[in-house]
From TrEMBL:
Belongs to the bacterial solute-binding protein ModA family. It comes from the Bacteria. The lineage of its organism: Bacteria, Bacillati, Actinomycetota, Actinomycetes, Kitasatosporales. This is Molybdate ABC transporter substrate-binding protein. SUPFAM superfamilies: Periplasmic binding protein-like II.
Amino acid sequence: MVGAVVVLGVAGCSSHSSGSSGSSGSSEGGEVSGEVTIFAAASLKESFTELGKRFEKAHPGVEVTFNFGGSDSLAASITGGAPADVFASASPKTMKIVTDAGDAVGTPVTFVRNQLEIAALPGNPEGISSLKDLTKSGLKVVLCDKEVPCGAAAQKALDASGLRLTPVSYEQDVKAALTKVELKEADAAVVYKTDVLAAGDKVEGVEFPEAADAVNDYPIALLKDAPNTKAAKGFVALVRSGEGQEVLSDAGFLKP
């Protein structure tokens, strides 16, 4: 069954959930079996969890386990020897950490793109309508750490606008930044459009034009020391298939 944990480094214990409808994700060389471990950017949590359920349904006996977290921390875990089969990163820069270390097989492929959006409190009580509004005095704004793809993208958008913003905190990944707003510990956060969509009525999304200049490509790659190469290839095939792309598109991701 699909397991998912949010990690900073090497994964700990995972929690499991039951499978659901759907199928696909063929692999090369016959039937797949055993456990396959996917390290994936935190922003992929909802869509990849759904794809994991579909992969398990299509391949009875296979167990898909996910480690979700900041792409930089996941990359460091992989290069540090953490056992994993697939890495799906939220930026080419963090994927390069893995490829430069020789820990990926072949050339990573961009499978989706993602765009930033402001997550404000429900009803947008502060009247936030632009990126510049986040610089207002007294406003509690949260950003992802600059080493994390969502933080790097946010900084790129701010720099392009000539804006300076001092957040109340820098968070380890996009879900942590979003949670600050959901818990009303912050007035706003710069996250991905997909995360605003996943949060439902817990936040209110505010689009800003500068986001178009800071769109992140998401690459995926098989890992060199993958314990289950056959299942890994099957999962990557599902992600890149029409079915996988539909799930990702429904979650708010952009086509590669």
